[in-house]
Amino acid sequence: MSFHYFYGGIKAGLMPTVPFSGMWSSIFQFGYVGVSLFFMISGYVIFYSAQGRTAAQFATARALRLYPAFVAALLMTTCFVYLFGSDKEAISPLRFIQNLSMLATDLGGEYVDPSYWTLRLEILFYGMVCLIILVGAAAHLEHFFLIWPLFILVAQFTPLSTLPLLSCDFAYFAAGALFSMRRTKAGWAPVALIILCYLESLYGAGIFTDDFGTRNKVVLPILTLFYLFFALLNKPAILQMELPAARFVGALTYPVYLVHQVIGCIVIRNFQTDDNRVVLILTVMGSMLFFAYVLHRVVEINGRALAKHVIDRLLGAPISWAENTLQARGNKKAIGTDPLISNDVLVEPVQAQRFPS
Fold first, then answer.
1. Distance between CA atoms of 6 and 273, rounded to whole angstroms?
2. What is the average pLDDT across 316-320?
3. Which domain covers residue 202, as residue numbers?
4. Contact 118, 37 (CB under 8 A)
5. Any domain includes 202
6. Residue 331 within any structural domain of the chain
7. Cα–Cα distance between 341 and 134 in angstroms, integer?
8. Residues 26, 159: contact at Cβ < 8 Å?
9. Position 39 pLDDT exceeds 80
10. Which of 253, 258, 286, 339 suits 116 as a labelling partner, its CA being 20 to 30 A distant?
């Protein structure tokens, strides 16, 4: 919120420059680096979330985590822009529909809230993991995460870097998954690839390509701390820690992310004066936390059963059908290649006893 209210919102033209923004902007202009931590957490969690699940179960679990709050926040932001926004922020029905996919830019549109760009990367990451499970390669998920950083490395020196899943942003997802893998898998390979992901992260952040000025002097230690954080997270003493209200505070982070930028910037832009700017921004921050709590409580908790029913029907059922179809074809192909079986009919009745119906 501080990044968007003191720097990002001003730079994007969502709100005017304020007299005290110079000092605060210099402090919070690096807040965008926090997105990297968000991606690493996603990779860390998804590696375990995918274990022992079918493609349909994985997809519905991820959709249930993202979509209900997202749709509610999108509606809230759209209504707020309609009532208080400018012509520049106007949201057409087509733009709204494009945003419902979380892939607005891929459909030729613009995001209702610029923060939503990160959700596109999340969807691509989830889709990749879901596809791996769908084709029956879930047992090789570890192998994929071990070679993914190598693909990202090659892509940086070829035109392939523009392809989905091969930009340096995805090095954070891969690093999170590798750290998660390290909890149970020893050996040098995960460690070496985590180091590679770290270097790719620095490359993507411009550490190796830009002059080592103030920005890099700040971004380098922040990214390094993120990697050290996950290294410590795997220590038994850290894993056993219990932080008061951690689950509740963590649950609010996604709703806060969804609602704060456009709504907050519009309020600050429309109601700020020379005398109330600091108080107004602090009030807006508190209000965003309150809205996030309401969104979490009403949509993510009370509306969970309804959302799960809808997602199971619209997403889970088709993926489950595809999964069963692929599995049935795989079984049929395996039977067809057995030397004792021809056209699904056993050749020798005595030998057939070894194959239960």
1. 15
2. 95
3. 34-300
4. no
5. yes
6. no
7. 27
8. no
9. yes
10. 286
